[in-house]
Amino acid sequence: MSVPDTHAGQPRKAAMAAWIGSALEYYDFFIYGSAAALIFPEVFFDESDPATATLLSLATFGVAYAARPVGALFLGHFGDRVGRKKIMVFTLILMGISTFLIGCLPTRDQVGTLAPVLLVLCRVLQGISAAGEQASANSMTLEHAPPHRRGFFTSFTLSGTQGGQLLATLVFIPIAALPEEQLMSWGWRVPFWMSVAVAVVGYVIRRKLDETPAFEQQAATEGVVKLPLAVLMREHWADVLRVIGGALVASVSTIFTVWALSYATSDSVGMDKSAMLWVGALANLVALAAIPLWATLSDRIGRRPVYLIGAAGSAVTMFLYLWAISTGSYPLTLLLGIVAFGVVYSAANGVWPSFYGEMFSTRVRLSGMAIGTQIGFAVAGFAVTFAAQIAGPNGDDWSAVALFTAALCVPPVVAALSARETAKVPTEQLGERTASQAPQPAKVTA
C-alpha cells in the first residue's frame, strides 16, 4: 500500500509523537514505581509493620496493571472504531491528571485508611490510561511506517518508555537525597506535580498528527467493524494468546525497576538509594540506544530471532543481576544492571511493538495489541507483589525471585517460536493468513 502524498513526512512525525508521548506517560507511570518502593510504605501504610507496609505498597503498583485489561477492552474498541489519534490524546491527558492528583493526596496520618484508598483509585486511572497508550502509539507508528522499516519506527514507542523511566529516575535522585523529614512531607510530591506538563505538551504534539493511511483506507473502502472484539476473538484468538504470553516478558522490567530497587536498599543489603537509582538511570540510557538498534536488526533478519534473544537472555541476565545485588558490590551491580536491562532486555522490548502489531489486520490491530498486551502486563505488574512474597519474611531470597523471573520468560519464548515471521510481509497483507481461516464478517461503517 503506497502512502498518499498528504501523509508525506508522517512516519517521522508519528514516531516522534509516539516517543514523546510515551516518555511523558511513562515518566508518570514509573515515578509511581520508585515512590512505591522508597516512599509510600511510610506515607500511606502502617509504619509499625514495615514488611507488610512494603508488600501493600508494591501491591498498589500492581493495581494499575489489573486495571489495564479493562481499559484495553474499551480503548481498543474505540481505537479501532474512531481512529488511533483520538485515543492517543485521551490517554495522555488522563495519565497527566491522575498522576498530578497522586501528588495532592493526604497521607495516612492525616485521613487514616482513606489515604491508601484514594491512592489505589488514582493508580487505577493510571492503568486505564496506559492500557490504550502503547497500543494506539504502536498502531499509529506501524501504519505510518515504510513496510521495510516498521521495526525501526515502532521501536520509538518503547524508546519513549525508556526515556520516561530515565527521566523519572533522574527526577527521583535529588528527591531521594533530601533530608528524611522533607522527603516524607513534601519532597515526594514534586515529581507527581510536574506531570501537569504531560497534558499540555502531549496535546500540542499529538493534535497535529494525521490519522494513519491504513485506517483511513479501511474506513473508506471496507469500513470499520462494528464490534472489533468479536472479530478479534473469532479470527485472531491464537495471536491474542501469543501476545498475552509474550507480554509476560515485561515482568523483567517490573522486577528490575521496583523489586530489585526495594531489595538493594533494604536493611539486608543496605545499598544507597541514590546510587541504586543511578543504576536504573544508566541502564535506561543504554536502552535508549540499544532499542532502535535491535529493532533495525529485526527489519533485516526478522522479529523472532531478535525477540528470542531478549526473552531467553533476560532469564539468565536477571539471575546475574540479582546475584550481584546480593553481594553488595556496587560496581558489579551497575555493570550487570546495564547488561541485563539496558542491552539484553532491550532486544525483546524494542521488537515487540512491531512483532505483536504485525500479527493483526488493520481493522482489529489496536484491540488485539491492547487486550493481548494488557492481560500479560497485568501479570507482570503483580510479579512485584509475588516476588515480595517469594523473597521470604526477610525479603532477601533473591535466588527464588530470579527463578520466578526466569519462569515468566518461558511463555514469551514459546509465543515467539509458535508465531509467524512477519518482518517482510507487506503492510496491507498483515493478518490476512489468520483472517482467511475464518468466515469473513460483514463490514459496518461507523
Automatic annotation (TrEMBL):
Membrane topology: Multi-pass membrane protein
Major facilitator superfamily (MFS) profile domain location: 14-424
TM region(s), chain numbering: 26-45, 51-75, 87-108, 188-205, 240-263, 275-294, 306-324, 330-348, 369-392, 398-419
Gene3D superfamilies: MFS general substrate transporter like domains (1.20.1250.20)
Pfam families: Sugar_tr
Keywords from the named record: Cell membrane, Membrane, Transmembrane, Transmembrane helix, Transport
Name this polypeptide is given: MFS transporter
Start and end residues of each stretch annotated as Disordered: 427-446
Protein's cellular compartments: Cell membrane
